[in-house]
UniProtKB/TrEMBL annotation:
The chain crosses the membrane at residues 7-29, 41-59, 80-102, 108-129, 141-161, 167-188, 208-227, 247-270, 291-311, 323-343, 355-373, 379-401, 413-431, 437-457. Signal peptide: none annotated. It is found in: Cell membrane. The keyword Membrane applies. This is Uncharacterized protein.
């Protein structure tokens, strides 16, 4: 289990450093752009994220699973997946361009979105190389490149402000980042793991698409927690979209945690369950679900009490104060996502069809509720719907995994974090007028102390945490 913890630590450390940099630079954008322009920029980012869900039709998950099960065929999967992804990238970039041109957006928004289509295509071409690195569980490499991506991103945002540019300039960020990633990822994969050959086996292409059929609807339905960002400008206006964009940035900054956990555990569970190692898989899902519960409770309580203070401090303006309720609701939603991140990895690899049904129900719920309620109640209602969508996912996925695949300890891990969260919340509320830079670490210390005093963490949990941070202890990747 140590190599799992070390991989997760590598990804999270990279993203924490990235988040600090982005907090210092990204949150100058709302002050510079204003709510309306921020809403237009948020629409641009939403298009890229939503189409990134579609652009590989879920094949990346399939390829990671297959290479994890048989690493000797990495070159074969890489070469064929690259050819398929080239065509898919072109197709979805073209679809996105047609949608953008058909929409009645302001000219500056249309131009920025067309540049974003180029970024979409280029980013899709990094997926085959990342699949190989994921399957070989080389997450330190991915973590390092993610950090460099953040530096490029932050530099471009800073240049936008310094040079007094607009959202069209910002649209070139994914283009530049993707070009960098293609160069670096392809070099590392070719040198150490697999060779890309431009000879494609079309029979194998057909086989890949057959294997991938269960992943396609799951991929399409997975936009349930992003669809509101595309609908909001049409259901309300760009100003409210700007508020929601700022609030949603906290989702983006925190979603790397379940993303890191899922990325590391997916190939692990795929290989372990393929080999029938149920006891070890049960131990891992139970341990990391427990950790995620503890973290999710702390984040939710903290966001509920400090959302408005956090916005005012980071943005240096009260213009975005209306975004505070949406902020803490979205933090609560991403906390729910954290809790079911480990079982999500099992569901996708083992019960893809069932995962598709559950996610399809979630998407239908999200779409219907947004269309019915957001026009009347606004962007905060969109955040409420996102939270309930994640609760649907958590309930469905956890039930299936615990009853059909691996029965592991679950409900008993909520009580002590809730008690510790209540104690932390009372302390924060009592000292709410103090500096937020004091309240955040103090709240964390109080929460952790409460968990330790109640013996929430077992000796095995503590030993795992210690060895994960003990970098003198070398770990071999199976």
């Amino acid at each position: 289990m140590l190599h799992i913890g070390r991989n997760i630590l590598s990804l999270i450390t990279s993203r924490v450093l990235s988040a600090i940099i982005l907090l210092l630079i990204y949150f100058r954008l709302p002050e510079y752009l204003g709510a309306d322009a921020m809403g237009k920029y948020g629409l641009q980012a939403s298009y890229l994220i939503v189409f990134a869900y579609f652009v590989d039709l879920g094949m990346q998950q399939l390829v990671i699973k297959k290479i994890s099960e048989n690493k000797n065929e990495a070159s074969k999967y890489l070469s064929n997946y690259f050819g398929i992804q080239f065509l898919l990238g072109l197709a979805f970039a073209a679809i996105m361009a047609v949608i953008v041109l058909a929409a009645d957006y302001p000219p500056i928004v249309t131009k920025a979105l067309l540049v974003t289509t180029v970024g979409l295509f280029l980013s899709s071409m990094t997926m085959p190389f990342m699949s190989v690195l994921n399957a070989f569980e080389r997450f330190k490499v991915i973590a390092s490149i993610n950090f460099l991506n953040t530096m490029i991103n932050a530099s471009m945002i800073l240049l936008t402000i310094v040079l007094h540019r607009n959202i069209l300039f910002l649209a070139f960020i994914p283009v530049i980042v993707s070009l960098f990633d293609i160069a670096v990822y392809s070099y590392i994969v070719r040198k150490r793991f697999a060779h890309l050959k431009f000879k494609f086996d079309y029979d194998f292409w057909r086989q890949l698409f057959i294997w991938n059929l269960p992943f396609i609807p799951l991929t399409l339905f997975s936009i349930y927690n992003r669809v509101d960002t595309l609908l909001l400008p049409h259901l309300r206006d760009f100003t409210e979209t700007g508020f929601y964009t700022v609030a949603y940035k906290f989702w983006d900054l925190l979603a790397f945690i379940p993303g890191a956990v899922g990325a590391v555990l997916y190939p692990y569970f795929a290989s372990r369950l393929f080999m029938g190692e149920l006891t070890e898989a049960r131990r891992v899902v139970q341990t990391y679900t427990k950790f995620m519960i503890a973290l999710g409770v702390a984040l939710t309580v903290g966001a509920a009490l400090l959302a408005e203070r956090l916005l005012e401090t980071l943005l240096r303006t009260t213009e975005f104060a209306p975004a505070a309720p949406a902020l803490w609701l979205l933090v609560a939603a991403v906390s729910v996502l954290m809790v079911y991140a480990p079982v999500n990895s099992i569901m996708i690899s083992q019960r893809t069809k069932t995962a598709t049904k559950i996610t399809g129900i979630t998407l239908a719920f999200n779409l219907i509720m947004n269309i019915l309620l957001v026009p009347k109640f606004g962007f905060v209602m969109a955040a409420v719907i996102t939270l309930f969508s994640e609760l649907i996912q958590l309930t469905g996925y956890t039930y299936i995994v615990r009853t059909k695949i691996l029965n592991f300890k679950y409900f008993e891990n909520f009580l002590k974090p809730f008690i510790a969260g209540l104690i932390m919340g009372v302390a924060i509320y009592y000292f709410k007028d103090r500096s937020i830079y004091l309240l955040l670490p103090a709240g964390g210390v109080i929460y952790l102390a409460g968990l330790l005093l109640m013996r929430f963490f077992t000796k095995e949990d503590i030993d795992l945490i210690k060895t994960t941070f003990n970098f003198r202890k070398k770990v071999e990747i199976p």
